[in-house]
Amino acid sequence: MSETNKVEKKQKEAKQPKANNNNTASKSKTELLGAGVKKEEDFSEWYTNVITRSEMIDYYDISGCYILRPWAFSIWEKIQSFFDSEIKKLGVQNAYFPLLVSEKALNTEKDHISGFSPEVAWVTRSGDSNLAEPVAIRPTSETVMYPSYAKWIRSHRDLPLKLNQWVNVVRWEFKRPVPFLRTREFLWQEGHTAFSSKEEADVEVYQILELYKRVYEELLAVPMVKGMKTENEKFAGGLYTTTIEGFIPTNGRGIQAATSHCLGQNFSKMFNIEYENAEGGKSLAWQNSWGLTTRTIGVMVMVHGDDKGLVLPPKIAPIQVVIIPLTFKDVDSTPVREAAQKIAKQLKEQGIAVHVDDRDNYNPGFKFNHWELKGVPIRMEIGPKDLAKDAVVICRRDNGEKKFDIPISTITTTVTQTLDDIQAALLQKAVNERNNKIKTIKEWAEFVPTLNTNSLVLAPWCNVPACEDAIKKTSGEESKNVAEEEKGFCLTGAAKSLCIPFVDQEHIKIPQITEETKCFKCGAHAQKYTLFGRSY
Amino acid sequence: MSETNKVEKKQKEAKQPKANNNNTASKSKTELLGAGVKKEEDFSEWYTNVITRSEMIDYYDISGCYILRPWAFSIWEKIQSFFDSEIKKLGVQNAYFPLLVSEKALNTEKDHISGFSPEVAWVTRSGDSNLAEPVAIRPTSETVMYPSYAKWIRSHRDLPLKLNQWVNVVRWEFKRPVPFLRTREFLWQEGHTAFSSKEEADVEVYQILELYKRVYEELLAVPMVKGMKTENEKFAGGLYTTTIEGFIPTNGRGIQAATSHCLGQNFSKMFNIEYENAEGGKSLAWQNSWGLTTRTIGVMVMVHGDDKGLVLPPKIAPIQVVIIPLTFKDVDSTPVREAAQKIAKQLKEQGIAVHVDDRDNYNPGFKFNHWELKGVPIRMEIGPKDLAKDAVVICRRDNGEKKFDIPISTITTTVTQTLDDIQAALLQKAVNERNNKIKTIKEWAEFVPTLNTNSLVLAPWCNVPACEDAIKKTSGEESKNVAEEEKGFCLTGAAKSLCIPFVDQEHIKIPQITEETKCFKCGAHAQKYTLFGRSY
Q1: Residues in B touching A148 (Cβ below 8 Å)
Q2: Is B96 found in the same domain as B13?
Q3: Cβ–Cβ of B94/A117 closer than 8 Å?
Q4: Are B415 and B347 in contact (CB under 8 A)?
Q5: Among residues B81, B302, B58, B317, which one has the least CA distance to residue B181?
Q6: pLDDT tens digit sequence for A503-524
Q7: ipTM score over 0.90, yes or no
Q8: Nearest residue of B to residue A91, measured between CA atoms
Q9: Per DSSP, which regions of A464-524 are E strands?
Q10: Closest among A496, A497, A506 to A529, alpha carbons compared
Q11: For bias kind Low complexity, which ranges apply (chains A, B) (predicted)?
């Protein structure tokens, strides 16, 4: 039996740490392994276990609020770093506007506030004194920012104005919370821009949407469908909303991943963002707003994770390579440990995030489980026999593939290539899984049965709000599949439109209607193939 | 008259933009120039004018909350970038804990909460419904984080635990707010660390304090006095507080610039942060917490600004060099504009933040004022005659010094050197101003008269809390100088201890007591020379 095989046997047998760790001592062996439950058997518990055991999230004594531990927060930092540098290239500047908003400002745009008001948290007291006027915690910052925009934008020369902020917002929802996906406080960036023409605003809406897609596809390896929200689903008070929509294969749910809104001139009218145009007359500004949240992390966990725990794409993994020296009783472990450190140093110099786990109070099997649970893309093992051959063993987290006898002399190249391979493989796998579960239908009769195969539906649709209402209502009535909701994920059986996909998409082909195509629901003339699904 | 002199004449004459700018059209010429009032004549109005006209700050419809515009926020980003990378070298990881805290958690440590409770903002409603239990907005996060620390820290192997977060906090003060310095919401980082020994905690307290000092001295060019807070002034609930204290020469006020606290075992006792030590017994963790806020920016503005507006140290200036092409009627401006762009490109390649102001709707004089108001360290002028000599003119914002005939061929070297010179000169000037205004006294009779020369006082002191109470009370009674308060800066005439300075300091010599030295107030045996002052 090879060194590695011996260790794997140990890994399977019993993964108790040698040290008496209070945290785990009381738990059974089964609970200690990976996610504790199979992803396909109890997705809800699987998710909770994975994000807590991997030390991404901890629970908190206020419902709907969670602690983002360093293992999760450092992923957010990577997303921030990418997106922030990209928007700065577009001339966007960061700023900070207050957390609190007055009732007057909040109520300025009626459609907007009616979309948010049930979820607004109100501060009414400081110390023991009541405030003269209660103030709200921002659910989003249109109403916080736009009174200032009205002051700052006087001339066409003050345009475009492009500001962004990385902040926390609070939406006091009463739906059952899901860490990362639906939380009462979350972190996001919100960009708020103003232009002198609709054309410029339109261009930016799509530039930002493309950046959002890149965050998901390039960093998180999660494929997106780009499209337009329907009237029913667009941002409250805006003109139109573009969106990227993700897919969770395990339960067949769609999930809104990020949105980029053109607000048109609705807000500029209400907030009086009027300027002197180049011809000396008065014009209202055209505005956009766009946001990306910590939801990103939850979607990535749900898409890639497996029964052993997290599977992190290399581009956002806090640790990309963990090196585990294999030590044996009665064998001097010094050469192996030194070799591990030397390799680590070499990889670090190439910008690879590497960690040597040379804790002497845990056996290698425990360590294998530990780093698999945390989703580290590559595990490197080095034992005395490997070292004798000037080689190491490499194991990929995403597919479990092991490669033996990797020469230490070419280790940097091998690791770099393997990280690239993993990144690409994760995206490709997710694309395949998603595309197998996006089904084109033409008749209403197929709708709920198709959803019940954990699929999304692409169907020709009339684009009439009342028809969408009917789809939601009827699909809810026809749906029997509410098992997920009972497990605590709060998903109704009803389906809604996710988006009207743009025809030109990477990774997926969107069918086009002809003049004869009818709406799958009401039979009227169809406008576009539209993506429907049960969703978060 | 040289080109430059002509422009300067224009600059002095009338600085109206050519364009009809609504923002400024109604203001008189005087108001338009620089800060509008002299720094020494009305410091309060000067400060307000400088931070608003330079577009650092805008006012907001909730009292005590301000908008940080890009010109200010980008300075905060530079401070973040420096400090964040330094603490990561110390093994600190970033995380995010919730904004809201339950009443139960908030009240766990009695001394702590009594220090904060009058300022706590309470959320009592969401939408139209009252919350079952009100929740507080964090004034600081000890009580938010430490219940989790109790869960996470089980074994000595879990220590040290070093977390930090960059967040907003709310303290609903009723003292008159001052943008950056005293605001109801502010941005900060708060580090919270736990160790198995007091020795390790002590070491970190001072490491962090040194980093805070470097933020002020190396980035912001503002000198600090490092020291220990007295019992009266230390952090509520902590063991001891170290501090760096700044000085505002214009009004002679001290200002607490940042603090690094050793919390001892008070919080670990109250929150039950107990772990199994290496010997198998139980121990309480030793804890620190430390914070640096956006106050940094306000202190820098007050120290360096002048009658023309902001003066920004090069290391934090959003724009380090502004290039202004000098164009003249009937002269083709193309060569000058092209030369400006070419120089800009060359400087950018060396990492210098450069901007070419080639707006054609403003004259050079207006532009000079504009960029002086915004504090850009170097102005570079290039006109046809300069270009004919392959040279430019450089003007330093800090001292107004102009250098003519700087060869374009060596421009990168000249600019780099000049930026370094400005950075060093600003710190040296601030050190001199401060040191001239820190006066050593030995008798109470000198105390208030010395304060009244806009100075701080170094005096031998007994380090007894009751004596400090007496100093505060008596100095308040004896003080006549409440002029600043009436101007809206909310400074009382009373003085308090700022810190007990460490003996070993850069830039300032702290006298040492002998066995015979008596407390300047009560005549008891003196413990240490202590820094007193009126303060923010």
Answers
A1: 58, 60, 67
A2: no
A3: no
A4: yes
A5: B302
A6: 999 999 999 999 999 999 999 9
A7: yes
A8: B70
A9: 496-501
A10: A497
A11: 17-27
Residue A374 lies in a domain: yes
* DSSP secondary structure code for residue A443 in this structure: S
The residue segments making up the domain with residue A32 are: 3-65
Place of tokens 């270009």: B387
* Residues B72, A131: Cα–Cα separation, whole Å: 29
- Cβ neighbours of A95 in B, within 8 Å: 67-70, 73
Specify which residues A177 forms β-bridges with.
none
Interface touch B128/A137, C-beta < 8 Å:
no
Q: What is the pLDDT of residues B465-506, one digit of tens each?
A: 999 999 999 998 887 555 544 444 444 589 999 999 999 999
List residues bridging with A458 in a β-sheet.
A440, A531
Same domain, A136 and A200: yes
Cβ–Cβ gap B185/A99 under 8 Å: yes
Peptide bond into B160 cis (omega under 30): yes
Q: Which residue has the tokens 């997920």?
A: A484
- What's the CATH number where A405 sits? 3.40.50.800
> Per the CB < 8 Å rule, is B62 touching A361?
no
> How many structural domains comprise chain A?
4
- Amino acid identity of residue B37, one-letter, is V
- Phi then psi for A495, rounded to 5 degrees? -110, 155
Residues 6+ apart with CB under 8 A from B9: B1
Question: What residues of chain B lie within 8 A of the CB of A152, using their CB?
Answer: 58
- Cβ-based contacts of B134 with chain A (< 8 Å): 125
Coil/strand/helix, residue B462: coil
Q: Which of A14, A43, A65 is the last residue of a domain?
A: A65
pLDDT digits (tens, 9 = 90+) for B190-241: 999 999 999 999 999 999 999 999 999 999 999 999 999 999 999 989 999 9
Report the C-alpha gap between A508 and A512 in whole angstroms.
13
Picking from A98, A157, A361, the nearest residue to B67 by CB comes out as A98
- Measured in angstroms, the CA of A496 and the nearest CA of chain B are apart by 25
Among residues B65, B99, B117, the one where a domain terminates is B65
Considering the domain architecture, whether residues A397 and A446 belong to the same structural domain is answered as no
CA distance A263 to chain B (A): 22
Total count of residues recorded for chain A: 536
Q: Which residues of A touch B152 (CB under 8 A)?
A: 58
Residue closest to A490 by CA, chosen among A183, A170, A72: A183
Nearest CB neighbour to A155, from listed B19, B74, B148: B19
Whether residues A267 and A128 share a domain: the answer is yes
Q: How far apart are CA A200 and CA A421, in angstroms?
A: 38
Q: Take residue A308 and report the two structure tokens written for it.
A: 């052993």
| Residue A183 in domain | yes
CB B388 within 8 A of CB B331: no
pTM summary value: 0.94
Place of tokens 């969107």: A510
Q: A402: part of which helix (H) or strand (E)?
A: strand A402-407
- In whole angstroms, give the CA distance from residue B54 to residue A26: 61
Q: Could you give the CA distance from residue B203 to residue B198 in angstroms, rounded to a whole number?
A: 9
Cross-chain Cβ contact A120/B127 below 8 Å: yes
